[in-house]
Amino acid sequence: MSSASLALLLLVLSGALGLLGLWQLLAGGSRRAELAARGRIGLDEGGGRSIVRALDARLRRTQPGRRLGAWLAGAGVKLLPAELLGIALVAAIAGYFVFSVLLAPVVAAIAAVAATVAVVRAIIERRRGNRRDLFVAQLPEIARMLANGTQAGLSMPQAVRMASRELADPAGAELRRAVEEMKVGRPAEEALEALRERLPSREVAVLMSTIAIQQRAGGDTVRALGELAQTLESRKELRREITTLLSGVVYTSYVVAAMGVGTILLINAISPGATQAMTSSPLGIAGIVVAGVLWAIAFVLIRRTTRVDI
Predict the structure, then answer these.
(1) Are 268 and 102 in contact (CB under 8 A)?
(2) Using an 8 Å Cβ cutoff, are 280 and 104 in contact?
(3) What domains, with CATH codes, occur in the chain?
(4) Which residues, 6+ apart, have CB-to-CB distance to 60 below 8 Å?
(5) Could you read off the pLDDT of 65-124 as tens digits, one per residue?
(6) Which residue from 15, 53, 61 is spatially nearest to 37, judged by alpha carbons?
(7) How many CB atoms neighbour CB 228 within 10 A?
(8) DSSP 8-state class, residue 76
(9) Of the four, 90, 134, 178, 242, which is 20 to 30 A from 248 by CA?
(10) Calpha distance 27→218 (Å, rounded)
(11) Element spanning 233, H or E
C-alpha cells in the first residue's frame, strides 16, 4: 500500500472515529453530567469547573451566548455553551492535522473550521429536530390534559404543572422548565413563549398562541383545547404519511452531498498529491469553490423540493 493510500485510509478512519466520539459525547455525556451534578450537591466544585462556569456566565451575558444556550437546551444537550465552544476548538485543531494530509495548510485550516462548524451544527440540529418531533407527537396529549385540567377548575399554570408531572419526556421536561420559570415570577405567557423558541414548530406555536389568547381574553378554554387536540392528531398522522412517502427522495440529497467529497478523495487516490497541488494554486482553489457552490445549490434545491409545509 502506497503512502498516499495509507494517508487516505487514516483520514477516513480518523474522521469516522471523530464523528463517533463527538456523537457519543453529546448523546451520553449529558446524562452522566446530570448524575454527576446530583452527586456533587453541597460540595465545592473544582477549580477547572469553576473557571468553565465563570467563562460560561460571561458568555451568556452576550446575545450570541444566550442564543447558543437556548439552542443547546432545545436539543436536550446538557453541555454549557462554553464547553461546546471548547470541544469545537479542539475538534478544529485535530481536523487541521487531518486535512493537512490532503490540502494546502491555509485551505486545510479553513476546511477544518468549516467542517467542525458543519458537523457540530448537524449533530445538534438532528438532536433538536428529533426532540422537537417527539414533543410535537405529544402535543395532542398535552392539549387534552390542559383541557381536562381547566375543566376540573384548575388555572392554566396549575394545569401546566399537572401535565408536567404526568407526561413523559421531552414534554414533561419542557413543561417542568416552564413551571420552574413561573415559580420564580416569570409570567406564564413568557415561559410558554420561551418553550416555543426552544422547540420552534408550527404546531407548538399554535398551541402556545391558543393558551396565550385564552389567558388574555378568556373564553371556552376547554372547547378550544379539545378541538385543537383533534386537529393536532390529524396533522400528526398526515405528517407521518408525507415523511414516509418522501423518505427516499430526502436521502438523495445526502447522496448528492457525499458525491462531492467522494470525488475529491477519488482524485487524490488516483493521482497522489493532486489535491495538495490543486489547493496550492489560486485557479485550483477557485475551481474547488465553484464546485462546492454548485454541490451546495443542488443539495439545497433537493431539500427544498422535498419539504412540505402543512
Answers:
(1) yes
(2) yes
(3) 133-236 (1.20.81.30)
(4) 66, 69, 81
(5) 888 888 888 888 888 888 889 889 999 999 898 888 888 888 889 989 998 998 899 889
(6) 53
(7) 22
(8) T
(9) 134
(10) 42
(11) helix 221-270
Which residues fall within 8 angstroms of residue 149, CB to CB, at 6 or more apart?
A: 158, 159, 162, 163
Return the C-alpha cell found at 164: 408536567
Q: Which residue has the cell 445526502?
A: 254
H/E segment holding residue 268: helix 221-270
Arithmetic mean of pLDDT, 296-306: 76
CA dihedral 11, 6, 253, 117 (to 10 degrees): 10
Burial of 82 by CB count in 10 Å (0-12 exposed, 13-18 middle, 19+ buried)? buried
Question: Cα separation of 204 and 74, whole Å?
Answer: 13
- Tell me the CA distances in angstroms from 2 to 8, 272, 293, one per residue in order: 10, 9, 32
Residue type at position 162: M
- How open is the CA angle 291-297-299, to the nearest 5 degrees? 105
Give 296-305 contacts, CB < 8 A, sequence gap 24+.
Answer: 298/256, 299/253, 299/256, 299/257, 302/249, 302/252, 302/253, 302/256, 303/250, 303/253, 305/249
The cell numbers describing 178, all together, are 416552564
Entry pTM: 0.69
What confidence score (pLDDT) does residue 40 get? Answer: 45
